[in-house]
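pinned: reference chain
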Amino acid sequence: MIFERDIIGRLKSLAKQFRVLGIVGPRQSGKSTIVKQVFPQYTYVTLENISLRAFAAEDPKGFLENYSKGDGLIIDEAQHVPGLFNICRA
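pinned: its structure tokens
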């Protein structure tokens, strides 16, 4: 599929230019799937997990320090903890 190849190349290129990327779109459109496919070496965390969401909300800096070891980090459902975005932009 042409669109899939285009988005994969674009994500890889943007990841080289920026430390943080946000992927937005409608529910069930394949955002998580494509990101995990493009960056399989990254740690994947979903904030659908209530205990992880609570940790991220209570201590966003500690959460990021804990999970951002290695090549990179994918935070799925990050909109549930808006405080993470403030830490990411610093």
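why pinned: The first strand starts at residue 43 and ends at 46. The chain has one domain: 2-88.
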